Amino acid sequence: MTSDILQDLQNSPSLFLVGADLTSESATKSIFGSAVERLGTVHALVVSHGLWIRDDVFLKDMPLERWKKTMDINLTSTFLVTREFLKGLEDAKARGEDPDKIDKASIVFVGSNGGRIGEAMHADYSAAKSAMMYGLTLSLKNEIVKIAPKGRVNCVAPAWVYTPMAADALKDPAIVYQSLATTPMKKFGDPFDIAAQIAILTSAKVSGHVTGQVAYVTGGMEGRLLNMKEDLQG
Fold first, then answer.
1. Domain 41-48+57-232 falls in which CATH fold?
2. Membrane-spanning regions, if any (predicted)?
3. C-alpha dist (Å) from residue 139 to 56, 91, 133, 153, 211
């Protein structure tokens, strides 16, 4: 997200923006404290932050520093944010808040198609997203109902999306071809495609009986084109 967009959002009277290092336990606690003070109990959580490092590196050559950084930003921070959200629901329940609001709490993670099909030379990212999409989502769908009986946990998993983080990679003709060659819609997604699916899964009215699911917003992408024509010659 660009600074211009953030500035526009900050000026909106209906939004409350707080910046924080989500790999920090104390910072994560602080943003939830600020949100509750300003808006009241948080009943819906969308975890959409993440990091994909552009450099292609085989696992055998990957520095531990890179692995830890990717895991901290994509997975550990997700744990911290989700934990504070669930604690907030539990505290609200103890205070006697309207149970109808708490009972319909919702979590939506943003994963990646790479968590399903893998991504060579980006095993750090794929591993972190896969853990979120499957291990964490499927575990939490059974935990959240102990606090919020109708609470739900789901995940949206995009393929390539036109975002600032992906902009440089999508200038590479090889990446574009290898991705779209297995995508029947022959196009990349845009942020609205992902946001719309998140809104659907967050809503208890339209997705009240949907939990533990991964919704793939990929244009039908079936996998990765591993070999170009020239790779098969000789």
1. Rossmann fold (3.40.50)
2. none
3. 31, 21, 10, 9, 11
